[in-house]
Design goal:
This protein is mainly α. Helices cover 62% and strands 0% of the residues. It contains 13 helices and no strands. The longest helix has 24 residues, at 3-26. The radius of gyration is 31 Å and the shape is elongated. The protein starts with a helix and ends in a 12-residue tail after the last helix.
Length: 295
């Protein structure tokens, strides 16, 4: 029978064909391996990261926002519950006094000079006023020296440029500089600019195209971070417990509540101190026997 012979012939033919196939493949050019496609990215808005950066040189670390005075007047043993009580009151105060100014300047940037003067007139506590001005002027300097070049032209950017020029002219006049330099912008407002933090924050956020709700949330969250940081330096709680407060659901609920509180105030004329005793704590900070913060 020829069956084994046929089997051997088929195997030899298969071996020969496989060798020819390998030789033909060797003649092909090496394939170029393209990298796998990147996953679809959805990063947060870049201005959100910039304005929420703890390294932003606003000088917030120098202020306790009334926490130091609160601890001194209550003589409470430092613990996380003490911080939560104060932080809730402090956020409520911020939402009912300054958050509406942020909303107003974000919505209408050209009202920055008028709203800045309005907040200055309605801020009665000198300690609170100094803290607001220090952080506001620092934010304006950051805008002029860093953020402005990366932002496009807009009504908010023009408002900041006009406000910055007016502030320089007003400062020169206060120093009895007779040959007031021409800063390229002439201020025609009724009141000299002051530089409060909330209206400037709203205008800068608008110039950087950060949505209003995100700007308001970051404004409140940055305040919470400043208070928690002051609590760590005042030995109220440790650094790990502080991060736990910032990451916990309690703070998120407080921020949401305070945003709702602030959104109920439609006009800046309706603002008012939601926690009147907080101004007493802040005002009495200067009479403490010893202190480590500016407010």
């Amino acid at each position: 029978m020829n069956h084994p012979q046929n089997q051997r012939d088929l195997e030899e033919e298969i071996t020969h064909l496989e060798a020819r196939l390998l030789a033909a493949r060797a003649k092909l050019p090496s394939p170029v391996h393209s990298p796998p496609p990147l996953p679809q990215l959805d990063p947060p808005p870049h201005p959100l990261l910039l304005l929420s950066d703890s390294a932003l040189p606003l000088g917030s670390f120098a202020f306790s926002n009334g926490l130091e005075s609160y601890l001194a007047h209550h003589r409470l043993s430092p613990n996380p519950h003490t911080l939560q009580t104060f932080l809730s009151l402090s956020l409520t105060s911020l939402a009912t006094t300054t958050l509406p100014y942020l909303r107003a300047t974000h919505t209408h940037p050209t009202t920055l000079p008028a709203l800045d003067a309005t907040q200055d007139a309605s801020t009665l506590c000198p300690v609170t006023r100094r803290a607001s001005l220090a952080q506001g002027l620092a934010l304006l300097a950051i805008w002029d020296r860093a953020f402005k070049s990366a932002s496009g032209g807009s009504a908010a950017a023009d408002a900041l440029a006009g406000f910055s020029g007016a502030l320089k002219i007003a400062s020169a006049a206060a120093l009895n500089d007779s040959d007031q330099q021409d800063f390229g912008t002439e201020y025609e407002g009724e009141y000299p600019p002051c530089g409060h933090f909330a209206p400037l924050f709203g205008t800068v956020a608008r110039a950087m195209e950060l949505p209003l709700m995100q700007a308001a949330y970051i404004y409140l969250f940055n305040h919470a971070k400043a208070v928690v940081s002051a609590a760590v330096r005042a030995s109220v709680l440790g650094p790990y417990a502080a991060q736990g407060v910032l990451a916990g659901g309690w703070l998120r609920e407080e921020l949401a509540r305070c945003l709702q509180e602030g959104w109920r105030i439609e006009e800046v004329e309706e603002t008012g101190q939601g926690v009147p005793v907080l101004e007493l704590w802040q005002g009495r900070h200067e009479v403490l026997y010893s202190r480590i913060f500016n407010s």
